[in-house]
Design goal:
CATH architecture of chain B: Orthogonal Bundle
Number of helices of chain B: 11
Order of helices and strands of chain A: EEEHEEHEHHHHEHEHEEHH
CATH architecture of chain A: 3-Layer(aba) Sandwich
Strand content of chain B: under 5%
Oligomer: heterodimer
Structural class of chain A: alpha/beta
Radius of gyration of chain B: 27 Å
Structural class of chain B: mainly alpha
Number of domains of chain B: 1
CATH superfamily of chain B: MetI-like
CATH topology of chain A: Rossmann fold
């Protein structure tokens, strides 16, 4: 395999998959350690998704193992984002979009009859490409916005919200101005605020749709470190256009093309020893 | 090459001055600019002329008493008295009309932008545009036919007629503001597992609040001067007391202007102008408030 392109060398890829709970890398921010917890698995079976007539996901089956980061890579329009949006039933919110198939959270089908979509989304949280804090809410209210609905109020709510801010490393930066608008923060802080908002409701799985594509390198680094930390507690699926990022944060990588999964393998194998020729061409920058 | 380098006596056309074609384009450009400038002047002049004319003609009659006294019932003092009953009545009519129309308008707007399937919301949008285009005298006759005929004129009938005029204005404005709320905020709410109605009340309405208030205030400014719906529904009223009971006909400024201007007494004409001034000042204040609120909310949404 050619290695002449600007690619992360295999030895640079932190081989976290073999050492779960590896010692943390040097801290660049004050962050409270998360209590490790048994994550939950997500299993996609024969999933088809459509936008009107357009068949965007074609019979995809993937297993996302618990407490691992799985990265979805592939050229634009290959269906990565659509796939993650099917995992918490956000896809169907788009007019004329629909999904068919099975997505198991542990062993329960989120597309099963009698399933409440809002309950699904509370278990499977989502972080978006562009940070989207609620503009009329303060920093604190943003983090607490999902909690109030679960009936968690008062001291318990404050405790959880503050803990979430500490977990994403925002506490020291914002604790003096919790009542200021969330939109007053920098782009990277806003994105970590959105992650804090997501983990405050204690989901089981976190989906991230290109969470760093609007961030500068330093803010990106902070979010990547956070992702590494979050997997001690959560199962994470991240869509990324940045192959280096996939190499840095993911335990395994899924390469998608035209709505199909081409290859799903441990991160090292995808970048250094892909089995499919198309994967190799993509990760070496030959197309896409 | 510079201009100074040209030899005197043999002037060559400068390369920078352009030819006849450029000059013609320039002239056309100037002409169109002048025309649009002139049109803008006409629009502003029309407003200024109306206001100045009203102020001049209202000056003899306008006074504190005019705002606070009942109309004079004495033939000996035809120029005395005021229109306080009309001011109070108009305030009640506009208040009732707003209480009826604004909540419905905002709920309709929420339904069309957040809940309705696209085909349904385009039908509703179209219906609101039609309703907005219905001549207000038709609205007046309609309410006259169902609420006044066989009963009596009443403030309620007038307020309902005004509400029909106000509803589409406020609803269309609200729809536009709600559509401006970024869909990324709705997605954020959905992804947190919030129910749609929760997202509407906690995220969308607070974000759009400034614009919604602006739309409501614009609706108020619009119906404040509506005369036709009131002529049929609340135009026969007593000038001896200040009535505040909407089950009776309520005095109101537009009908008062109409009646006074039809009067044979010259001093009544001055009063009609003064009443018109009161109305214009009210609409002006309300519009300025609406604009200020609108700018503030746009700044907020722009963040």
């Amino acid at each position: 395999m050619e290695q002449d392109v600007d690619l992360p060398k295999t030895e640079q890829v932190p081989d976290v998959s073999t050492t779960p709970g590896s010692p943390p890398e040097p801290e660049t921010m004050e962050r409270e350690r998360l209590e490790p917890a048994q994550g939950h698995s997500v299993t996609v079976k024969d999933l088809n998704a459509y936008y009107g007539e357009h068949h965007a996901i074609k019979g995809v089956s993937i297993a996302f193992p618990p407490n691992q980061v799985t990265a979805l890579i592939g050229p634009s329009g290959c269906g990565k984002s659509t796939l993650v949006r099917c995992i918490n039933r956000m896809h169907e919110e788009i007019p004329k979009a629909r999904a068919e198939g099975t997505v198991l959270l542990d062993d329960e089908d989120i597309y099963g009859s009698g399933v409440d979509v809002t309950a699904v989304r509370r278990q499977i949280g989502m972080v978006f490409q562009k940070a989207n804090p609620f503009p009329t809410m303060s920093i604190f209210d943003n983090v607490a916005s999902g909690l109030k609905l679960s009936g968690i109020r008062g001291a318990a709510m404050r405790e959880r919200a503050n803990h979430s801010l500490r977990a994403v490393g925002l506490w020291n930066e914002v604790s003096e101005r919790l009542n200021r608008p969330g939109v007053g923060l920098s782009g990277g802080q806003q994105q970590r605020l959105c992650i804090a908002r997501t983990i405050a409701v204690e989901p089981e799985v976190i989906l991230m749709d290109e969470p760093c594509s609007a961030l500068d390198p330093i803010a990106t680094l902070k979010v990547e470190e956070l992702i590494d930390e979050l997997k001690s507690r959560y199962t994470i699926v991240i869509v990324t256009h940045n192959l280096q990022q996939a190499a840095r944060v993911a335990d395994s990588v899924v390469f998608m093309l035209d709505g199909e999964v081409v290859e799903h393998a441990p991160t090292n194998d995808i970048f250094s020893n892909p089995t499919d020729e198309r994967t190799e061409r993509y990760v070496t920058g030959k197309f896409g | 090459m510079s201009v100074a380098a040209q030899t005197p006596g043999a002037p060559r056309p400068s390369r920078l001055s352009g030819g006849a074609r450029q000059r013609r384009r320039k002239a056309v450009n100037r002409f169109v600019m002048g025309l649009s400038w002139f049109a803008a002047i006409i629009a502003i002049a029309a407003l200024l002329l109306v206001i100045v004319d009203v102020v001049i003609k209202a000056a003899p009659a306008i006074s504190w008493d005019f705002l606070t006294q009942l109309p004079s019932s004495s033939f000996l003092n035809p120029s005395g008295g005021g229109i306080v009953n009309s001011i109070v009545g108009s305030a009640i009519l506009i208040g009732l009309s707003s209480l009826i129309s604004i909540p419905i308008a905002i709920l309709v707007a929420i339904y069309t932008t957040e809940f309705a399937p696209p085909q349904v919301s385009s039908v509703i949008r179209f219906a609101l545009d039609i309703l907005n285009g219905v001549p207000t005298i038709v609205t007046g006759i309609f309410i006259y036919g169902i609420l006044v005929l066989g009963h009596q004129q009443s403030g309620w009938a007038g307020a309902i007629a005004l509400a029909i005029v106000q509803l589409p204005i406020v609803a269309r404005a609200a729809q536009e503001v709600l559509a401006l709320v970024p869909s990324s905020l709705k997605e954020a709410g959905l992804a947190l597992g919030l129910r749609r109605w929760r997202i509407v009340t906690r995220v969308i309405l607070p974000t759009a609040a400034g614009g919604l208030i602006t739309g409501a205030v614009l609706g108020i400014a619009r119906v404040a001067g509506e005369t036709a719906p009131l002529l049929f529904t609340t135009s026969v009223f007593s000038n001896l007391t200040t009535n505040t009971d909407p089950s009776q006909a309520l005095a109101n400024i537009p009908v008062t202007i109409f009646t006074l201007s039809e009067s044979a007494t010259p001093s009544d004409h001055a009063k009609a102008w003064a009443a018109a001034l009161v109305l214009i000042v009210f609409v002006l204040i309300v519009s300025v408030v609406a604009r200020t609120l609108n700018e503030r909310s746009r700044r907020k949404l722009g963040n």
